[in-house]
Design brief:
Elements: E1 3-11, E2 19-24, E3 30-32, H1 44-56, E4 59-60, E5 64-73, E6 79-87, E7 90-91, E8 101-106, H2 108-113, H3 129-132, E9 139-144, E10 152-155
Parallel strand pairs: 1-6, 5-9
Antiparallel strand pairs: 2-3, 2-8, 4-7, 5-6, 9-10
Length: about 160
């Protein structure tokens, strides 16, 4: 079984209520939250902190675990697990553009009124109920076969 482990962090400015969004250029281009691949010997939490620092310049702390988005290919049992966190506690100044993409602050209303085509192909992480209905769900499960248009999403 091939398993890929990643993290994703929703950072909300406690003063403005705005969310830090990344317009990804590389893998899965489009709007998402910062995050990335877990390195060997690294915890999910530590990965989330490191990836946010690398991609945005911010030092985040007191991350709250929101759940896992679990993708599974029914044809070959390939899996992709994204451990999702959120925080309102951070220090530093946002680097507006890196190799990964451009970072910008966006209001919650703007986020939810954005056409879904603008989001990365990674199931619109910024809109996930795992972030916005905190505590209601612990997992989002996506199973697909062959043609990716046949996928199904379940929140549990």
């Amino acid at each position: 079984m091939d398993v890929e482990l990643v993290t994703c962090v929703m950072i909300q400015n406690p003063e403005t209520g705005k969310l830090l969004v990344q317009n990804r250029k590389l893998k899965y281009p489009g709007w998402s939250f910062p995050g990335g691949h877990v390195e060997r010997g690294e915890s999910f939490y530590d990965c989330a902190v490191r990836e946010v620092k690398e991609e945005t310049g911010l030092d985040v702390k007191n991350l709250k675990y929101c759940g896992v988005l679990h993708w599974m290919n029914r044809d070959n049992d390939e899996r992709y697990l994204c451990f999702m966190y959120k925080t309102t506690e951070f220090d530093g100044k946002v680097i507006t553009e890196t190799d990964e993409g451009e970072q910008f602050w966006l209001g919650m209303d703007e986020l939810f009124s954005t056409p879904k085509e603008r989001f990365s192909s990674a199931e619109h992480y910024p809109l996930s109920p795992l972030f916005h209905d905190y505590g209601k769900y612990s997992e989002a499960f996506v199973a697909w076969s062959g043609d990716e248009s046949t996928w199904e999403l379940y929140y549990k």
